[in-house]
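task queued by scheduler; priority normal; single chain, no ligands, no partner chains; default sampling; output format set to structure tokens
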Amino acid sequence: TASRLKAGLRARLGPEYSFLFPGVAGRRGSLLGSIRTDDHRNLGRGGLGNALAAKRVLAVAVAGDAEPAPEDVDGFAFLTYEARKLMEANPVLTRALPAFGTAVLMELVNQAGALPVRNYQASHWDRAEAVSGEALSERLIEGRSGCFGCRVRCTGRVGTGRASTPGPEYETVWALGPDCGIDDLMVIQQANRLCGEFGLDTISAGATVACAMEMSEKGILGRTIAFGDGERLLELLGQMGR
């Protein structure tokens, strides 16, 4: 597993190293395979985990403490100051995203008629509120963190302490939720966790299952995979990851 590999590499190379790995799915040939970092983030789009594993690269280790200096120190400081002013004047960046994460977009996109629902057979969903950023923050999120160097800090954390893991982002929620006809946040988070553990891109995985659900609905798949079946979604993600 990635955790055992990380522990072995860190023991050999030293504690100053950080690592990324192709996930289990990528190592087994899945075109949806993502790259997983040692702090449990995933770089998912485009099958990067599969590409890395195909080159027989099982891990990349990085260490360093030199801070790169800009060539124009004053110019860089001015641009940073101006960017900070623009961010602080934007209520989405200063209030909505830190409070509710990227899933705050759910209701906005739904109202605009652009939400993928049931493999995009519809673009508006009367159950979107159940999987909104507000609902996610109220029911699942227990803290916030953020990407390196970002001031917004919009990443939701599920659980506390060492057991804490990143919660689902907006794209993950719609792909594993409305696109599959599912409005159960607990199922969506479980699906998100499975994708993270196996190294499956959440958007591609959710969209693939949603496509199978529509094909089943239209009688051209040869087996039953129904929209809204959260248990079946989790079963399929496990099979895809393995």
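post-processing summary
- The longest strand covers residues 18-22.
- The beta strands are 18-22, 35-37, 42-43, 60-62, 143-145, 155-158, 165-166.
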